[in-house]
Structures are given as C-alpha cells and as structure tokens.
Amino acid sequence: MAVTGSPELMIVMAAHATADQVDEVVARLAEAGADAHVTPGKDATVIGVIGDRELLATLPLEGYPGVEQVLPILKPYKLVSREIRRDPTVLEVRERRIGDGYFGLIAGPCTVEYREQTLGTAWAVKAAGATMLRGGAFKPRTSPYAFQGLGEEGLEILAQAREETGLPLVTELMDPRHVEAVVGTADVIQIGARNMQNFLLLSEVGKADKPVLLKRGPAASIEDLLMAAEYIVKEGNARVMLCERGIRTFERATRFTLDIGAVPVLKQETHLPVIVDPSHAAGRRDLVLPLARAAVAAGADGIIVEVHPAPEEARCDGPQQIPAAEFAEFAGEIRELAALMGKVIG
Ligand code: PEP
Ligand code: MN
Fold first, then answer.
1. pTM for the complete prediction?
2. Residues flanking ion ligand 2, Cβ below 5 Å
3. Secondary structure of residue 209 in the 3-state scheme
C-alpha cells in the first residue's frame, strides 16, 4: 500500500498484543485523521504513524490497549529503516531467497549481446550454483557511440534463458517508457547507478509488483541511497535490495572504489538486503574475487558478478568479466566463505 506522508512516530505493540488490538489502534488513528503503516515483526508489530506532528502529540497513544511504547522515528528514511522493522527482510524470487542467512549469487553477462553468448553463460552460471541470472538489454553507456544493448530483443533472449535454466532474471530498467517491457520480463528490476536518483523512475518501480535491485550512485552517500530506496517503498513496493558497486574517488587503480564499509553501515541502518557488485567496482577481472570475498566477510547478503564466455570479445566491460569456464571455481570459493559467515546460497 502506498504511504501518503512521512511516518513521524512508531507505535511498538507489546509482544502479546492481539491482531484486534492492532486493528483497534489503526482505527483510532484513522478517526483522529492520521494514517498507519503496519509492519508485523517476529517479536512485535510496529505501526508507523503518518500525520501532523502537533495533532499526534494530542493523542493518548501510549494508553491504547496493547501498545508498549511510542517513539519518534529520528532518521530521514522511515520505511526502510531498522527502527521501523527490526527483522531483516528476505526477498523471495521464484523460490530463490536473499537476506537473513540466504546469500544471493547473481551472475551473468554485462550485456545481452547474442543468443548463444547469453544462453551459454546462463547454463554455466546455473551449473556453478548461481541463484539468478543478470544481463542488460537496455544499457547505460558513458559514450553515446558505444553499444547501447539489444533492447526488446535482449529481453526476449533473457526470457529464453530463464525458460531453459529456470534462473530468475535481473535486468535494468533505464526509462519509464520501457516499464511495460522490462517489468513484464524481469523477475528483479535493476535500477542502475546512474539512475539512483531518477525519482520518477523510482516511483514507477515502487508501483510495480516485482522486486527491485537498487544500485548506489557513484557519487551518492549512504543516506542518499537509503532515501532513494524510501521513494520505492513509499509507493508500496517493499521488495527492495540495495547494491554497493563502488564510488568515485581520486583513486584510479580500480574503476571505482568499493566502499566496503557501506555494507555493515547499511546492515545497521536498514532491514533491506544488501548486496555488492565487485565487477563494476574492480573494473579488472583479477580483483573481482578478492573484492567478492571482502563483501561476504563484511556481511553482504549477496553479490552480482559479470561472467562472459569469451570476455576478450565482449562488447561491454570485457576486462572485468570472469570467463564462464572459470566461474565454477569462483562460485565454490564464495559458497565456502558464505558458509563460514553462517549463510547458505539461497
Ligand atoms: C550493470 O550492472 O549493468 C551496470 C551498468 O552497473 P552500474 O549501474 O552499477 O554502473
Ligand atoms: Mn557491466
């Protein structure tokens, strides 16, 4: 359900509060002209209260039956914050899971180039234990002269790869004009780094009934990323995962600087799953595994990695793509490390 305003307060219900008591609080808030956003939790239900602060201050919220505590929501992000939902969110996509003990291993080509390339990669990553297939049909390229992706034909190739392998698809949506085509085909809608603050696009995917993989902009702060996620969740789509993919710094040895510290910070600040893209951060194949290891060790809920049957021939991001023939070994290392961190590949 879309949220109409900013949740200012949260009502933490007692562990023993009944569903009727929750309904009663919501009804009383409605009578007083306030809206409620109910988040059930393992230990307690939390009700986010949306309404005029002065009006809310006059309500005897703490005296309502079943209410344990009333607290202000202090962070600028509300629905995505850990304050409002203490339990981690687990995203389920075609029986694959990401979050709270389930590690997502998303792999596939940077770009859908031709059928055999995409199908070959899909089968290779599936055999190695990947849980989802990535691949761009609409590509955000720095140069307007570079290959921009196959568009709808690329989506059709991805759909075939899903049909053959059963892997759910992660693919990027760049423009509100492509919503129907991309949302219709994707299992997870990727919002790329360059579009992290395209607020109209965020609102569009907030209305979609598919999970969203939101990448951090190269010049965005962690708070900016969380506020971008809030745009999506506010529209009613709570199925969002965040992706650290490197930020722009003065350093040139890597393509971007992987902000590994963002992983534990995000894990503290939000209940949403947090994944890492070591490929775009590294820009070089030899650094992808060490950065992926760091991601797992830092507590990430998954990684998204670029894989190509013949990276030297790739039309996009060749230097950072892992050869498909080497991916099984890569995946094996990640699986072992994830197990050390108490996680299973979802
Ligand atoms: C991608 O994952 O295909 C991509 C373009 O990455 P980013 O948006 O992080 O640059
Ligand atoms: Mn790429």
1. 0.97
2. 110, 317
3. coil
